[in-house]
Amino acid sequence: MDIMDRENIAAEDIMPAEESTLLILGKALLGAMLGAIPAMLLWVVLGKVGYLAAISGFFMMAGEIIACDHFTRKSRNMNIQTALVICVIVMIIDVYLCERFVWSWELCDVLNEYSEDGYSVGIFDCFKNFSEITEVLEIQADFTSSLVKSYLFAVLGAVAGVMKLAKK
Known about the structure:
This protein is mostly helical. The protein is built from seven helices and no strands. It has helices spanning 3-7, 21-48, 54-72, 80-113, 123-128, 130-136, 140-167. α2 (21-48) packs antiparallel against α3 and α4 (80-113) packs antiparallel against α7 (140-167). The chain is elongated and about 60 Å long. The N and C termini lie far apart (47 Å).
């Protein structure tokens, strides 16, 4: 094929190389993780002021689905069921992380307020040592109860989000 023939080939005549399944799943996972970030920030802020709202679960699932779709739009082998499974798994992890961060922030505030020796504890210290702190303070059951409620609200919001997106 000479140079003249190469120039006459239309862009749509060239088939893109097939993406590997691992690459497609990686794109979907990255999209879901990035799409959840705004809702995670909302979750933490609402949690810090003492609210638990299904709206955070709605925005988390909607953000994950939209970003996952955006990242995998050109991938022919990506199906909606796989994307939903990825988004649900990411959401389960994100709800746990958000709830643990909110509790770590609260623990940090309480520990610093009652510190008699002037020693300051950071939020990330509380997050890192969360299990030990909740065990010593005997509040692990309270955290578990709060986490279950958070999952219920997240599911409520996520189902509403999926139903709304499914109608479109």
